[in-house]
Design a protein that fits this description.
The protein is built from seven helices and 17 strands. It is of the alpha/beta class. The protein has three domains: 178 residues, HUPs (Rossmann fold), CATH 3.40.50.620; 54 residues, Roll (SH3 type barrels); 78 residues, Translation factors (Elongation Factor Tu (Ef-tu), domain 3, Beta Barrel), CATH 2.40.30.10. The strands form four sheets. A six-stranded antiparallel barrel has the order 12-15-14-13-16-17. Strands 3-2-1-4-7 form a five-stranded parallel sheet, with helices on both faces. It has a four-stranded mixed sheet with strand order 9-8-11-10, with no helix packed on it. α1 crosses α6 and α3 packs antiparallel against α4. The relative contact order is 0.13.
Amino acid sequence: MRKKVVVGMSGGVDSSVCAYLLKEQGYEVIGMTMQIWEKDMSSEGSCCGLSAVEDARRVCEMIDIPHYVVNFRQDFKTRVIDYFIDEYKNGKTPNPCIACNRYVKWESMLKKALMIGADYIATGHYASVINIENRYQLKRSKSLKKDQTYALYNLTQNQLEKTIMPLGDYTKEEIRQIAAKIGLLVANKPDSQEICFVPDDNYSKYIEDATGEVAVEGSFVNKAGEVLGKHKGIINYTIGQRKGLGITFGKPVFVTKIDATSNTVTLGDSEDLFATVIYAKDVNWMALAEFTEPFVAAAKIRYSHEPAECLVEMESGLLKCTFVQAQRAPTPGQAIVLYDGDLVIGGGTIVD
């Protein structure tokens, strides 16, 4: 009997070719698209808008597989949007794609897939799932510039066991060539660049509109606590920010700390942004069943970051990473992801 796989269909070229490849490999493929909004709030290229649903339907029709649209609105609001808003209001810089991957694209979709008798779910992410000594791990993509393991570090063993990612051995160019060869209308569709539910990239306006609350002004301070001027509300800032501060000093200054309790934003020089030791909470281990002893790994502290060598320890329940070279602008709320070569060891959420 053929194995049944549900493919998360975003309407983009990656998930479309993912479905095609799996069908060619002999799987019984079902396309599933998340419905997460009451109305279309997306821009062209977004992974979640109503136009994306229609693109996904057309692709499924062309490659002759069934297509279902499933309502995940409440899950998306609770797990992604509410989390996104709360983190910014608390002076953090969230990564909603990581939350969406773990709790919506995997947890909610996998539950629905298993309910209809599927054996696996699959996505068009640039990564691979492998099993080493009974631990499911993620392997970085053949195309490192497209690698998406950073945003997937939080997946559980149960989720990975039921996951297929066929695009890990391809480059983006190869995927577009396959799409063009089989005549998919989305072959040249642009990639989604921004957060899907904030298409204009104006996070503070989105938060104010969503909550009905206007950001409260507060004080810019220096590292000695001296007041330098007024800021527009902490949701307008992130660690390392230089532009758009609305204050000048005749030299470049950067956001070095955001304190929601005191409603202050600390400004400093570029060198004030560097840290040798970074702590993280909510650790998810992939390669390890549990932490037993310190080890050396390479770590990324943001999606586009080049992995840097560090000593990994646990201290008072937190992940502690001590880097050989100081890292610029570790940002509370973002992820730190550990690698052993091309394999993901685990990761957590950076704290102050």
